[in-house]
């Protein structure tokens, strides 16, 4: 049934059915391993301006599929997948930052409007930790860099503020690894940052110190992308000192250290990244001269090799992305 209906449907069945849930939940890890996750690229800025377009990359076939667009056009938003659904928050459509939040179901291809975030913001970052959505940082309505951290409570359908980041910033990137949220890079006061900070949700619930600074990145950068693979955090591309970067750095939480790995084939900022079956995918971005990139590249950490894949149908930058199962 799980293979036919998809992982998202199986998860919802396990949550909704008291009788069948106990039998479905134990097989979810095996089902997750058997079914391939896919990369969803959402919104951004392209040749036609602010976008609502949604496109999915299917690694099994190596092809792109267009999906129903977001209800709202926007760029500089953030996304993450939690509980089998994709959440897209914040951003801008040429005006002030937005607090809008919308949810997409990969199983049904339907969108649903959610309560807005407490703080309107663009250039924020999002990640899911232990099945819960977290949104951090961003730029507020007066242009100020925000330390704001919010999580979305699925049960009551409400946003909750958590201890803020020690350092307000926007244009940062985030990813989850080992049950913790990592936030790297960004801008504050016109300066690019090498800062990397870690948030522990369990410590926050216990009332302990939840934020900690970890080893900073080797280079200052903003508008970069992040993804986690093999227990490590990867930060890719971005901009530093007016230069677009192809650089990729890997952070190992076990040793609290960074290591440079082979660079991307394409220099770019405002790209998106995701991890599918242990391999990193980087899509879209901006490389100057109003180039709305459609490039899609894949990195295999086991071999250190990059591979160029079929391009995304819609060239864009300042988009967002999430990895999810149908």
UniProtKB/TrEMBL annotation:
<keyword id="KW-0677">Repeat</keyword>
<dbReference type="InterPro" id="IPR015915">
    <property type="entry name" value="Kelch-typ_b-propeller"/>
</dbReference>
<protein>
    <submittedName>
        <fullName>Uncharacterized protein</fullName>
    </submittedName>
</protein>
<dbReference type="Pfam" id="PF01344">
    <property type="entry name" value="Kelch_1"/>
</dbReference>
<dbReference type="InterPro" id="IPR006652">
    <property type="entry name" value="Kelch_1"/>
</dbReference>
<keyword id="KW-0880">Kelch repeat</keyword>
<dbReference type="Pfam" id="PF24681">
    <property type="entry name" value="Kelch_KLHDC2_KLHL20_DRC7"/>
</dbReference>
């Amino acid at each position: 049934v799980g293979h036919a209906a998809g992982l998202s449907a199986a998860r919802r069945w396990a949550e909704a059915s008291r009788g069948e849930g106990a039998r479905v939940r134990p097989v979810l890890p095996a089902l997750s391993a058997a079914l391939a996750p896919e990369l969803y690229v959402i919104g951004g800025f392209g040749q036609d301006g602010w976008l609502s377009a949604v496109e999915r990359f299917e690694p099994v076939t190596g092809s792109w599929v267009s999906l129903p667009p977001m209800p709202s056009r926007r760029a500089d938003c953030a996304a993450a997948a939690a509980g089998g659904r994709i959440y897209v928050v914040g951003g801008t459509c040429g005006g002030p930052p937005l607090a809008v939040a919308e949810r997409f179901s990969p199983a049904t291809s339907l969108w649903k409007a959610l309560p807005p975030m407490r703080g309107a913001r663009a250039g924020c970052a999002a990640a899911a930790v232990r099945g819960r959505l977290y949104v951090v940082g961003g730029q507020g309505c007066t242009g100020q860099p925000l330390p704001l951290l919010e999580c979305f409570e699925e049960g009551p359908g409400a946003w909750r503020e958590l201890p803020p980041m020690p350092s307000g910033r926007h244009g940062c990137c985030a990813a989850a690894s080992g049950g913790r949220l990592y936030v790297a890079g960004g801008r504050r006061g016109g300066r690019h940052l090498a800062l990397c900070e870690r948030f522990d949700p369990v410590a926050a619930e216990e009332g302990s110190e939840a934020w900690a600074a970890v080893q900073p990145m080797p280079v200052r950068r903003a508008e970069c992308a992040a993804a986690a693979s093999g227990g490590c955090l990867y930060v890719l591309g971005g901009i530093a000192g007016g230069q677009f970067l192809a650089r990729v750095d890997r952070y190992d939480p076990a040793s609290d250290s960074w290591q440079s790995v082979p660079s991307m084939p394409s220099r770019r900022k405002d790209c998106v990244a995701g991890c599918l079956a242990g391999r990193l995918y980087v899509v879209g971005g901006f490389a100057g001269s109003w180039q709305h990139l459609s490039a899609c590249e894949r990195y295999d950490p086991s071999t250190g090799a990059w591979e160029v894949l079929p391009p995304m149908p819609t060239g864009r930058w300042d988009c967002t992305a999430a990895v999810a199962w149908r």
